[in-house]
DNA sequence: ATAGTGACTGGAA
DNA sequence: CTTCCAGCCACTA
């Protein structure tokens, strides 16, 4: 099985609008369990304007992961709000918004 | 080749 | 709640 960026990007592209997935979850679906960081790398590599809905990937705590660019974090939160996702004290309720493939 | 770093995570203190 | 840490491994210097 292939576990390159394309594989990760393909899975992220399956996350429905108004839903989120965690880095670890994407790693599992990509067949590389416990390699959440690799998913973070794949997101970092995405060119601006990519069709991949990278904004729907959040960390296991339901928060936007810290990165070098605070403005980018704010933009991600904004994009998610536009999809109808509600933040509560800086966090997303995973019970409510976590993507559950097939179910 | 080694060492440090990081869009992560789960467990321990 | 907060830190700290080991495991994970691609990437960079």
Provide structural commentary.
This protein has 103 residues and is mostly helical. Helix content is 41%, strand content 8%. The protein is built from five helices and four strands. The strands form two sheets. A two-stranded parallel ribbon has the order 1-2. The relative contact order is 0.20. The mean pLDDT is 95.
Quick summary of this structure?
With 103 residues, the chain is mainly alpha-helical. 41% of the residues lie in helices and 8% in strands. Helix 2 packs across helix 3.
Q: Rounded to an integer, what's the Rg over CA atoms?
A: 13 Å
Report on the biggest sheet: 2 strands, parallel
Helix content: 40-55%
Q: Look at the structure and give the mean pLDDT.
A: 95
Q: Low-confidence stretches at least 5 residues in length (pLDDT < 50)?
A: none
Descriptive keywords:
103 residues, mainly alpha, two-stranded parallel ribbon, two-stranded antiparallel sheet, globular, DNA-binding
Topology:
Elements: H1 5-12, E1 21-22, H2 23-29, H3 36-45, E2 57-58, H4 70-82, E3 87-88, E4 91-92, H5 94-97
Parallel strand pairs: 1-2
Antiparallel strand pairs: 3-4
The chain binds a DNA duplex (13 and 13 nucleotides) through helix 2, helix 3, strand 2 and helix 4.
